[in-house]
Amino acid sequence: MYQVTAVAELPGHDDRAWAAAWNPSRPILSSCSADKSVRLYSYSSTSDGTLKFNHVSTIPTGHTKTVRSIAWSPSGKTLATGSFDSNIGIWEQEDIGEDELGAGEWECMTILEGHETECKSVAYSSTGTLLASCSRDKTVWVWEVHPDADFECLGVLMEHTQDVKCVAWHPSEEILASGSYDDTIKLYVDDPTEDWYCFATLTGHASTVWSLAWSPKGSYLASASDDKKVRIWKRADNYRWESVLAISAHDRTIYSVSWSVGRPKSGDGSLGWLATAGGDGSVKVWELTEPAEVEGISKNAPPEHRLIATLPSAHGVHDVNTVSWCPRGGMEDVLATTGDDGVTRIWKIVPE
Amino acid sequence: MAFSGALTLTDLNDFITPSQACIKPVEQTNKPTEEKGAGAAVTEIRVDESGYYEVSQAGISNGSTNKGRKLEQAQISLNDCLACSGCITSAESVLITLQSHTEVLSVLSNDVDERIPIISIAPQSLASLAAAYSPQPRSASSTNERTSITDEILTPREVFHRVRRFCTSILGFAYVFDTNFARHLALKEHVKEFIERQQEAQQKELTNGDSVPHPTITGALPLPMLASACPGWICYAEKAHSEMLPFIARTKSPQQVMGTLVKQWIGKKLGKRPDEIYHVSVMPCYDKKLEASRQDFYDDVFKTRDVDCVVTTGELELMMKEFGWDLNTGTLSPVQPTDGPSLSIPVKKNTPINLPGVSIPELLNHPGTSSGSYLHAILRHFMSTSPVPLTLSVKAVRNAADHEEYILRETPIENGNTSSKIVFKGIKCYGFRNLQNVVRKVGRERGVRVESGAAGRLGSAGGAGAGRGVRKIRAVRKGRGAEDSPSAGGEDEDRRFDYVEVMACPGGCVNGGGQLKPPAMPNSAALGDIDAEGYKRDWDGEGVAPSVGAKWGDRDWTKKVEEVYWRDAKNVDEDLVADQLVDEVLEELCAGDDAERKRLLRTEYRAVESDVIGLAVKW
């Protein structure tokens, strides 16, 4: 039905490439690596409609260990890096030249310290006022973003019993999700009169939860696990989420999941496209649709899912560490992957 | 990200197993090697109830009865834990049980042990007991076994008297004190230290402007001064934020001042050496056990600690229960406790009679916070010594009682100068989360690098963080230049802090880890926990138990203990009496010798550097 076609190959990291993040407001893609650097690329459409990527800048970061995770603020002006040196770096450009697009010097505005051990993931909330991070120290931290690159710690959530692998914010509400080596997913909200707290623990995976992705409208949450399954959780009530679907998606650990609106053939009841990737080296794209409303079908009927495209060996023999849909309008069918080969690759999903 | 050989080639530590953090090395004693018999080169480890044995293969095949050489057990002591930064608290909390109430009972029941037993009780522990044994608001549901049948409201003072009876008549303690007088002494020293630091800072400002976090000729350390009474905070700072250590007050905590008072001052009165006294303290906090175990509080000459054993509020309650002591009546319960061991430990400690009476003021009141009023002691000092009247304003940050700013201003003179110069700015900051912000703020304001975790450790190992390469934070951003000179105009909000009362627990010491848990009260009658016929709803069975309820319950409980803490605060100002006694004590102990006073009442901190470097440890 669909084909995953190669758009660009972006080598340059000296060690495995861990993650890639698309700037939400400007045509910039960033990647981070065990070589402790962040690479920035600008991109544009050529006259024949193909995408062209240019390496514009490399941030050496100064992290003393692997940069494991990167996240853009919604404004697209600030970049956060989460490193195995336990710290989070906050990066900005002094002057943003309209035509330079990410080129030039990126300055470390501040360092967020507090994690005892490796920081595994960082994420900005949808409004950009909150930043979350998680670590092998089993904690999830919530920071409030203040002017002048100042940050205030709003919460240290010690709910997981093991290494926390990922954090992900709801696309519109201030709900935070975290996935852990303890096989669970935890959901948190702010108690207006007090602190952040965990309001739900989602159990079901039989092994580490490596990655989380909210559906574009936020009524579903997808989780990727070492148990080779992707689970879909549905919002049954304001603060209740239920497992409605488990897809045996890959032959080995699934390290990454990403959810976009996609380019479905029919918009009716579409929940968008879900991309998964992991230790088996393949990238898969799933189309999800709301369950048909039939009399007698329970409220928690699973969404319908359909594998619409498969790309084997996306990075040769190497693991795929991250898969990430481009969030920009008109590019909903473009995704980036990073692999143990140190390369970032860009792919487009095209109808066959 | 495969589990491949590549794992050893990078700094990836992404795969873990539990409790990997303990790095206590197994020490080699290098005993002279024994003559090895034939075939002894191959040995096995054999395990039975009595221990581990190294047995030669020959021994096994011969079926000989030779049990082999008994192997020493690897042991981790509290001191090993304190010296290690492998983990922050987990192993410690396990080892802490070594300082337990059973240890106290075994000393007390040991007839050979002739030490004079003295016990000191923290006021927060008394408040916790008083709250738990007072009738609960929802007395209809008397699921609370502690609740008295009478509706008597217990005060900490009454609890103290009842506990004192228990400790003397049942356990055989010679003296029972509260720690408030020691706190009085500690607060005075705390204020003294603050003044020293402030004078030093003012001196520096006159000469070169900014203060540097290093001791100078006068030896005074920089501002802001951070409170030092919370052992959880000290432990965390030593392990994760060594850059904060110069700011932490050197004054000992009330527990350790009490230790000095008991072993030195009271010891002298009794004609006893420090090692002839067994000093137990009752604290709201597990980490106080760690504090008492610090090397700084060990007397090398007499081989004894200022506080020999620390038990928590919960452990004190347990002892009372085990002995059938009814705190509701302050007498032995007529009915023996049904559960637990019956009085199998008859404490027959032959307490020496004719000991002199030692009188110190009882339950001195220190208005301010239930965590010791450290900030308020300094506020009071300013209010009472300022040549011009001062006005105090208090602002809760983000509506949280655990994070409040206290600002003292010169009261503007009416119709005249409207200036309201800030004289002092302090923060009260409780809980781990607020503590993070204080660490960040102090680091930012005072230009010291916040360093924690692996980065800090690597940084300091590699030479003052030079290897980090992360560009220095732009310290002063546009429009915030006022920060640098506290006396500049527009100082109000940007003035740097002078003092922070730091406590690791949310809610402070009344919510310490060693306090009694909230009585098992039904979640909330309003929620319909109990049906019309008085049956408790089975939340588990119905699967909709609101987990939020527990959270609220705990917070309400802390509020209740806080309220009880202040319940019988006497209006009588006993400060004069206490002050006099402080003078007396100091005269007797150090006779006006400043250095000796500091030796007795102050302590030191040291950064605990980790030898764990990610690259060296694989898991």
Automatic annotation (TrEMBL), chain A:
GO cellular component: cytosolic [4Fe-4S] assembly targeting complex
Keyword Repeat found: yes
Swiss-Prot/TrEMBL keywords: Repeat, WD repeat
Entry annotated with the keyword Repeat: yes
Name of the protein in question: Probable cytosolic iron-sulfur protein assembly protein 1
Repeat (WD) residue spans along the chain: 10-45, 60-92, 112-145, 157-188, 202-234, 274-296
Ranges in a coiled coil: none
Recorded family membership: Belongs to the WD repeat CIA1 family.
GO biological process, one term: iron-sulfur cluster assembly
Pfam families tied to this protein: WD40
Gene that this polypeptide is encoded by: CIA1
Top-level division of the source organism's lineage: Eukaryota
Role noted for this protein: Essential component of the cytosolic iron-sulfur (Fe/S) protein assembly machinery. Required for the maturation of extramitochondrial Fe/S proteins.
UniProtKB/TrEMBL annotation, chain B:
PANTHER family xref list: NITRATE, FORMATE, IRON DEHYDROGENASE
Gene3D superfamilies in UniProt: 3.40.50.1780, Fe-only Hydrogenase (Larger Subunit), Chain L, domain 3 (3.40.950.10)
Keyword Ion transport: no
UniProt name for this protein: Iron hydrogenase
Lineage of origin: Eukaryota, Fungi, Dikarya, Basidiomycota, Agaricomycotina
Family membership: Belongs to the NARF family.
Domain (Iron hydrogenase large subunit C-terminal): residue spans on this chain: 158-513
Keywords: 4Fe-4S, Iron, Iron-sulfur, Metal-binding
InterPro entries from the UniProt entry: Cytosolic_Fe-S_CAF (IPR050340), Fe_hydrogenase (IPR009016), Fe_hydrogenase_lsu_C (IPR004108)
Gene Ontology MF terms in the entry: 4 iron, 4 sulfur cluster binding
Domain of life: Eukaryota
